[in-house]
# Entry
Amino acid sequence: MWKYLLTVLTAASCCAQAATDDPPSCHDKDRGIIADLDHIVAPQGIQESYKLHVGGIDQWVYVRGQDKANPIILFIHGGPAAPLSPVMWQFQRPLEEYFTLVNWDQRGAGKTYLTVNPDSIADTIHISQYVSDAIEVAEAIRHKYGVRKLILMGHSWGTVVGMKASLARPDLFYAYVGIGQVINTRTNEKLSFEYGLEQAKKTNNTEAVTELESIAPYPGTTPITRERIIIARKWPQYFGGLSAYRSDSRYYFDGPTLSPDYDPKEIASIDQGNGFTLGKLLPEFLDVDFTGVKTFPIPVIMFMGRHDYTTPSAPTAEWLQAVHSPYKRGVWFENSAHMIPWEEPGKMLLSLVTYVKPLAR
# Structure
């Protein structure tokens, strides 16, 4: 959750720099190679992107798969406003042999951010609106491609939207898959902070100890501001809580520069959209709490990174053990933190094919 926070507020990313390059971009040839490899040529396949009018505005979706007869996954991205569309080329290709993937640039995110004047939707940036949008997108995809139901999958912030959409409209979905699931925001913040401080002390990192202790107790009763979140996110991620065994995640943050689906202006829109939505959603996000959900109406599968201290996995495992649902399964990714699709793509594919695809009947 809030993966883009440090990039947006503390440093200029390569993504932003790419937007200032004079055309032709130094990455044009690279993007062309990736686009050629990524091009779906199977006669029964599908590869298209277009705008859907949902929630009163146009929002972009991207549909890819090797066989139209495969089950459809609606993948709800994290952030907020951290679209998967400019980085799907990094991990999605193998999934497309078994599923049709629909990625969606949410309200205020990516190409949708550029399509709609931000000022015109500023008052609509609420969790409830994102949930309503997700349901509309699911309905539209279901009707366009002539299927009864979809598989709903969310990552990070997207799990908040995905859980709520599943609870509101279980009739639309075969199953729900949470990756980096948010169960209780304040619990997550506390566990993440404690991990960062523990690792800082363990490694004698005095800079980290000083910064983290400056906001202690966290989250505590002091208001959770952007400034406190920056510190609280910075060090757990540095100690591998975003990408396991890594102090940074450049592969992800700079990945859009090679996207065959985004030009430099659209790349710059990622950070712009994140900045636009962050403050508006923060108060509501801090109140997210699914611990009271004791019954889940559809099959639920949780992918949990053993080293995830961005949205810590322990609360998810506890919730899953207690919840009643038609089917439930927890899958631990032992070499992953928060970025499971990138960190263990093979196991993710195998898990989706083994545990999820049979549910789509």
About this structure: Residues 7-22 have pLDDT under 50 and may be disordered. The radius of gyration is 19 Å.
